[in-house]
Design a protein that fits this description.
The protein has 245 residues and is mostly helical. It contains ten helices and no strands. 66% of the residues lie in helices and 0% in strands.
């Protein structure tokens, strides 16, 4: 159904994909997203709540309201000032007593992007590391805790889940400190892996499924060399290395 959470999550993921200039048929994919809006609007209209015109007016009003430096007399010289003003306006709009500073993060965002938004909201209220060294210490600590849970005499899947999540959340903050979108970083890494894996298949000329591990390592390194950008330095590491992607 149009309002199903899992379906909306897939549509959000698709929304990220169509922003990629390398994605084919973007007009068709954007049409799929638009269809979801139209269908949800019609369902709401049939139930007597709102229609597509109300949606258009609502987003128009919000854009004007949250951009006083564009549509009003407010001044903002930097992107940081714009972002902080945006957060202040959203907090004023929220208004309800007892509401959290973390309210308003879209529920169906992809996990990495959602983590980034939550982190940014916390930072806007002063919850931040003093320097990058503290952040690296936190990452090292979280990785240690994850390894300890995995190496436990009786590993607990739920605890491993949580510790892995802590590592990922901390890595999102590493990305934020570097002014990077972690969702984009992961997509780039996935695309790089896919390109190299396809090159392996091309070089092998046959299925990789039953190939000995040593042959796979050799093919990986050859594929990596052939797909590497000219300005990248070649570093030979085994396929099993977690950073070798």
């Amino acid at each position: 159904m149009p309002g199903d959470g899992e379906h909306l999550a897939r549509r959000n993921a698709l929304g990220l994909a169509v922003l990629d200039p390398l994605v084919d048929d973007r007009a068709q994919e954007l049409g799929d997203l638009l269809l979801q809006i139209v269908l949800n609007a019609q369902v709401a209209c049939d139930q007597g709540h709102f229609d597509i015109q109300d949606i258009a007016e609502a987003i128009n009003d919000k854009i004007v309201r949250r951009h006083p430096h564009v549509f009003g007399g407010a001044k903002a010289k930097t992107a940081q000032e714009v972002r902080l003003a945006w957060e202040d306006l959203k907090e004023e709009e929220r208004g309800a007593e007892g509401s959290s500073a973390l309210d308003g993060v879209t529920a169906y965002l992809p996990a990495l992007l959602k983590a980034l938004k939550v982190s940014e909201k916390a930072v806007s209220h002063g919850f931040e590391w003093q320097d990058q060294e503290q952040l690296w210490e936190k990452l090292t600590s979280e990785i240690g805790e994850l390894k300890a849970e995995i190496d436990a005499e009786k590993p607990d899947k739920e605890r491993i889940h949580l510790e892995l999540g802590d590592v990922l959340f901390t890595l999102v903050n590493v990305a934020r400190w570097q002014e990077l979108n972690p969702e984009e970083s992961l997509i780039m890494s996935i695309d790089k892996f896919k390109e190299r894996f396809r090159k392996m298949e091309e070089l092998a000329g046959s299925s990789l499924k039953d190939m000995p591990a040593e042959n796979l390592k050799s093919l990986w390194q050859e594929a990596k060399t052939k797909t590497q950008a000219p300005d990248q330095k070649s570093v030979v590491r085994p396929l099993s290395a977690s950073s070798d992607t």
